[in-house]
Amino acid sequence: MISREEVAKNLRENSTVHTTDEVYVALLNCIGITYDYANLLNRLADLIDPTCKYLPNVHAVWFDGNDEEYEDTSLEALGNSENAYCSVCGYEMLTGEEGWFDYEHEEHGNRLIPRFNYCPFCGARVVRDEA
Ligand SMILES: [Zn+2]
Predict the structure, then answer these.
(1) Rounded to two decimals, what is the model's pTM?
(2) Among the four 9, 77, 93, 114, which has the fewest Cβ within 10 Å?
(3) Distance from the alpha carbon of residue 87 to the mean position of ligand 1, in angstroms
(4) CA angle, 97 as apex, 91 and 103 as ends, to 5°?
């Protein structure tokens, strides 16, 4: 995928457009979108406001009364704190007593509430998982 810096450079080099059609085509070209036009707005949003989630390394898995298995990758397994990672860059942050998260106890696992707003490694805004 084309980087933010490359997109910005392309946009600056193509700033001599005159019509709506030219703007649209230039925008798609600058962002590196060829056929997936519906993705243009999402890609723009990601460039303006990159986001990530911090997910537990050991997520909640449980079974119902019929031995049907369920899992929730956003919940940390009960009694099993093994850090959490950034969904964009994979950077790991400490969980548990000394960690960087508050805990919200739920029936099948613990919801991690990050005490930071941006990933310290990739800089993406951390989106919190609300129950
Ligand atoms: Zn990150």
Answers:
(1) 0.79
(2) 9
(3) 7
(4) 80
